[in-house]
Amino acid sequence: MNQVTEQAVLDQLKHIVDPDLRKDIVTLGFVKDLTIDGGDVSFRIVLTTPACPVKEAFETEARQLVGALDGVRSVRVVMDAEVPKGRGISGNMALPNVKNIIAVSSGKGGVGKSTVAVNLAVSLALDGAKVGLMDADVYGPNVPLMLGLADQQPSAFNGQITPLEAHGVRMISMAVLAPADKPMILRGPMLHGIVRQFLTDVNWGKLDYLIVDMPPGTGDVQLSLAQLVPVQGAVLVTTPQTVSIADVRRALKMFETVAVPTLGVIENMSYFVPPDMPEKRYHIFGEGGGSRLAAEYNVPFLGEVPLGLEVRESGDAGVPVVIAEPDSPQAKAFRKVAEEVARQVSIEAMKPELQIVSRAG
Fold first, then answer.
1. How many CA atoms lie within 13 A of 67 on its CB side?
2. Which pLDDT score is estimated for 359?
3. Is residue 96 part of a domain?
4. Is position 88 within any domain?
5. Which of the chain's termini has less CB crowding within 10 Å, N or C?
6. Dihedral sign from CA coordinates of 345, 347, 350, 352
7. Do 142 and 264 have their domain in common?
8. What is the pLDDT of residues 343-357, one digit of tens each?
9. Percent of the chain surpassing pLDDT 70
């Protein structure tokens, strides 16, 4: 029996190519803790997102490739995930333990942006990530209601606010710091101060993703966030109709102006399927606007979420639809969208390393 070598195992694993990063898993540094004990081979494959859609395929292919080597008796593969740090995070003193900051934004209100932000955050947590949700929509802070936290108040420890938590997501919002009926009458400098407080005075702990629910439009909060911390990217929420698309187009250009990449476009309320006629699909707000916008600006289309009573009912009840109705079309759509967002975050975060790998190659 031939002796199995580390190089032979790695050469086999080089045949596995990440479809998004377009490099093999050995070159990308995904193969860890390789050990060989006679004919028994074990190693970890560490992917960039817990929700990686090719995880099972990678595991099967790795077993087959290494198992085909002469002298191999058994192959033990452990699939793992470690979300990479986004751009500029290493030097970010405000949030040193937060790997990626994602802004969820829209050009106008009424498109379900907060609902998308909540279900996106909870979906990422369900996939195994450490997630925070910062409700920066200070004029209409509805996130606590959607998470069932409207009647709770955060505590303080060592001079910092401890965020509330629900469904695996840590959350802060003006709605839990001020009376429910108090209007938010705020000018630009005050908004900047609130954003800074939410970033620096909240003990977020270690997070893979901090989702920021932005207010509608292209105003002070968006600019403050971009100035205070390195934002990994923006997720833009729209409905299909022309009026919504026109406003989201402005939001996309605004993020481009402040050097925040657009991770992609989510089309919410894409269509309605009557519960008693599941074979029918009604495009109440038009059809295909989100995908056309993404194609126009060459950014990813992250998916479409259908309109349904389940989303409204679960939001009002304080239990996001991905928890309350996990088998509903809306929940499945949100889970898929979350996978796409995680993929785009990983691609954006890995770009500097890919450039190094390309130069070395």
1. 10
2. 47
3. no
4. no
5. C
6. negative
7. yes
8. 999 888 887 655 555
9. 88
